[in-house]
UniProtKB/TrEMBL annotation:
Organism for this UniProt entry: Thalassotalea marina
Gene3D superfamilies found in the cross-reference section: 3.40.190.80, Fructose-1,6-Bisphosphatase, subunit A, domain 1 (3.30.540.10)
Molecular function terms, GO-annotated: inositol monophosphate 1-phosphatase activity; metal ion binding; RNA binding
Protein keywords: Chaperone, Cytoplasm, Hydrolase, Magnesium, Metal-binding, Ribosome biogenesis, RNA-binding, Transcription, Transcription antitermination, Transcription regulation
Protein known as: Inositol-1-monophosphatase
InterPro entries in UniProt: IMPase, Inositol_monoP_metal-BS, Inositol_monophosphatase-like, Inositol_monophosphatase_CS, Inositol_monophosphatase_SuhB
Length: 267
């Protein structure tokens, strides 16, 4: 295992331990609101601190960007960690055991290492650039479906951008009519990991942040899938509008979504 992936795994496991311990008594966890429908807890922050500590202990010069603490600038700009200590906080606070720790490393702007860890199931998804993707050490691959018919897609609702709900519903409908079913499980990082593992056939969501998708994106790519924005380009890191699937299904998804995008989502 790449030494930096090894550190990422260690960091994810220590965050996972904090999260699982608190989840056992989740009724006692204090929930703050970061704005409407946006929860955060002390556990998010403790988990992020554990990850930052693990990275800084091993690589004191690296930069880190995390959901809760923002940018921790290091002296070395070539190495940037992108972390979401708890992806699926809404599930966590509701007592639904489906959430993950997401840690990615970019080297000179390119995704290089990725970990998505589901601490409840003990599922560790990892990828290193050019080396494939694994689940608990076993190789995983994106399902190479040729069409949407029979597919199950994961998605997320635009909880923060409710002004996009109408467009979203139109896209949802266009895709839903062709697929077997849809899943809205509540963790974008796990949605992407599940695409990588072939558990779902594709994923789309709008308005996500870099820490939601960075690790999952590398998992999907290393597992033989594609990740694009809503028009097949590579603006998804900026726009947060993301589609992931096998090359052929992704192409069909984009075609079906296209009539419903409007100007705002054409990126
Ligand atoms: P978070 O738990 O780290 O905030 C799924 O739609 C994604 O959106 C998740 O990865 C989740 O990341 C984020 N999210 C933030 N607030 C949400 C909410 N109220 N409902 C669902 N997802 C939310
Ligand atoms: Ca959050
Ligand atoms: Ca998140
Ligand atoms: Ca989070």
């Amino acid at each position: 295992m790449h030494p930096m992936l090894n550190i990422a795994v260690r960091a994810a496991r220590s965050a996972g331990n904090i999260i699982v311990r608190s989840f056992e008594q989740v009724d006692k966890v204090e929930v703050e609101s970061k704005g409407s429908n946006d929860f955060v807890t002390n556990v998010d922050k403790l988990a992020e601190q554990a990850i930052v500590d693990a990275i800084q202990k091993a690589y004191p010069t690296h930069s880190i960007i995390g959901e809760e603490f923002g940018v921790v600038q290091g002296s070395d700009d070539d190495y940037q960690w992108i972390i979401d200590p708890l992806d699926g906080t809404t599930n966590f606070v509701k007592g639904i055991p489906h959430f993950a720790v997401s840690i990615a490393l970019k080297v000179k702007g390119k995704l290089d290492q990725a970990v998505v860890f589901d601490p409840i199931r003990g599922e560790l998804f990892t990828a290193s650039r050019g080396k494939g993707a694994q689940l608990n050490g076993f190789r995983i691959r994106v399902k190479q479906n040729k069409e949407l018919t029979g597919a199950v897609l994961a998605t997320g609702f635009p909880f923060k951008q409710k002004h996009h709900m109408a467009s979203y519903m139109n896209m949802f409908q266009a895709l839903f009519m062709k697929t077997a079913d849809m899943r809205r499980a509540g963790s974008a990082a796990l949605d992407l990991a599940y695409v990588a593992a072939g558990r779902v056939d594709g994923f789309f969501e709008l308005g996500l942040k870099p820490w939601d998708t960075a690790a999952g994106e590398l998992l999907v790519i290393e597992a033989g899938g594609l990740v694009t924005d809503f028009v097949g380009g590579h603006n998804h890191t900026k726009s947060g509008n993301i589609v992931a699937s096998s090359p052929r299904v992704l192409k069909e998804m984009l075609k079906d979504m296209r009539p419903h995008l409007g100007d705002a989502l054409s990126k």
